[in-house]
């Protein structure tokens, strides 16, 4: 059969055309390092990979499928013309589950065992004991967003004996490890129960700024907030105020409203805060997983089968 595919920037891979031709001998692949080159060939393309900006989409008169290079792309990726189009869009969710859930657990275990207290003491050569550890079999994690990453995190929390409350708009049945599943409307009642509140949600029109003053006030003052989803979901000024007021005990943060986090930002120096520079998804085998997912979807598209990781474009995930 075969179809025409345009691989646009960013994240184009030089080895993909050869791999694709082995899987689909009749495929017509165009690897385009620049948007200008992509504009010259996208007119009659059936499918495209990359950041399909408005000027590209305008020229793509035959496009049926777009493969997004990321699970949560840059702000503005889901532009109005793309959302309004009938083009099916897929993303790369699921390939980061193990890496990001391990990062979440590193934050959680650090807080449970007091590393956020002892590491600063180590820097000062200060030998002082006395942190009240959190006994995980008696602790509750509230996981906001129970997709692949949140689901794997729930499983790991349950392995440590924790009670897990999942908050998710889509799931009808609690995945393994989740003891109770509620809709986002139940977040207010779930937050006061959490010793750890873990945000894995993507940035969408509904999640922008979803963690702000009222959410932090609803949490236990001994609770820890962990965000590895998207920085736009958290109002950092409100988080700073909550930490300074003792409304929550600490925060583990990998993503921020502004990145890099400015060197003068107060979060760098507030006690009880652990910061990593947007690296939760780092780990081996990501390129292999991205390649396998993309080629599998290309085969599915060529055969007219259901694609993996189809996105609700209006909600950005």
Output the keywords:
alpha/beta; Rossmann fold; five-stranded parallel sheet; 11 helices; 12 strands
The CATH class of the largest domain: Alpha Beta
Report how far the terminal alpha carbons are from each other.
Answer: 30 Å
Overall geometry comes to: elongated
Helix/strand/pairing class, anyone?
alpha/beta
- Total number of helices: 11
Mean pLDDT: 96
Report the portion of residues in β strands.
Answer: 5-15%
Strand order of the largest sheet: 8-7-6-9-10-11-12
* Main β-sheet description: 7 strands, parallel
Which homologous superfamily in CATH is the superfamily of the largest domain?
NAD(P)-binding Rossmann-like Domain
Count of extended strands:
12
Walkthrough of the structure:
With 317 residues, the protein is α/β, with parallel strands linked by helices. It has 2 domains: 4-94 and 284-315, 3-Layer(aba) Sandwich (Rossmann fold); 97-275, Rossmann fold (3-Layer(aba) Sandwich). The chain contains 11 helices and 12 strands. The strands form 2 sheets. A 7-stranded parallel beta sheet has the order 8-7-6-9-10-11-12, covered by helices on one side. A 5-stranded parallel beta sheet has the order 2-1-3-4-5, covered by helices on one side. Strand 1, helix 1 and strand 2 form a beta-alpha-beta unit. Helix 1 (16-23) packs across helix 11 (286-303) and helix 5 (97-113) crosses helix 7.
Chart the SSEs and their pairings.
Elements: E1 4-7, H1 16-23, E2 28-31, H2 35-41, E3 47-49, H3 54-59, E4 65-67, H4 80-84, E5 88-90, H5 97-113, H6 115-123, E6 140-144, H7 148-159, E7 163-167, E8 180-182, H8 187-190, E9 196-199, H9 213-218, E10 224-227, H10 236-244, E11 250-253, E12 273-275, H11 286-303
Parallel strand pairs: 1-2, 1-3, 3-4, 4-5, 6-7, 6-9, 7-8, 9-10, 10-11, 11-12
Helix pairs in contact: 1-11, 5-7
